[in-house]
Specification:
Layout (H helix, E strand, L loop, with lengths): L1 E4 L1 H9 L11 E4 L1 H12 L3 H11 L3 E3 L13 H13 L3 E3 L3 H9 L4 E2 L1 H10 L5 H13 L6 H11 L2
Parallel strand pairs: 1-2, 1-4, 2-3, 4-5
């Protein structure tokens, strides 16, 4: 499977020490705009940016231009560039967490997935134990990722099968 990914999912996965969930993808593409966001984070002293840079340097994340994003999407430059790249490269999924970006992705006929969904898919595939899955969801929320209590409960229940 191939994916295009935005900066925020990379940052959250780094914060919760679960970049391994990206192993479900054979190829992960990022546009230069996302790399620029990561570089700004690195300059500001955010340690997770260094880990993302290592993924790029190691070839796990492939930087590719995606064409010109549409301004009427009203998304930040990174999100718009990821969606443009996903369309152009015809990836299987686009990993985004912003609600507006998810909506635009669906409108464009793309398949958006979020960090909680990636974690759930790992759990359902047996690559995460239920305990590790629940701990990852708690850590994700603890880093500032918004999930309503109801959605957290539904995710935990879904992880149980």
């Amino acid at each position: 499977m191939r994916a295009a990914i935005d900066a925020s999912p990379l940052i959250y996965l780094t914060r919760i020490v679960r970049l391994d969930v990206l192993d479900q993808y054979e190829e992960i593409l990022v546009p230069p705009e996302v790399i620029s966001e990561i570089e700004r984070g690195l300059a500001a002293g955010h340690p997770e940016a260094l880990e993302v840079r290592r993924l790029v340097e190691g070839g796990r994340l492939r930087v590719r231009k995606g064409g010109r994003p549409r301004t009427e999407w009203n998304l930040d430059p990174g999100e718009a560039a990821v969606l443009a790249l996903a369309r152009r490269a015809k990836v299987d999924e686009v990993v985004v967490d912003d609600r507006a970006a998810i909506g635009v992705a669906k409108y464009l006929g793309l398949k958006p997935v979020s960090v909680p969904f990636l974690l759930l898919r790992e759990r359902l595939a047996g690559r995460l134990t239920q305990g590790d899955f629940e701990a990852a969801i708690r850590r994700l929320v603890g880093t500032g990722y918004y999930l309503s209590r109801e959605l957290q409960d539904r995710l935990v229940a879904a992880g149980r099968g």
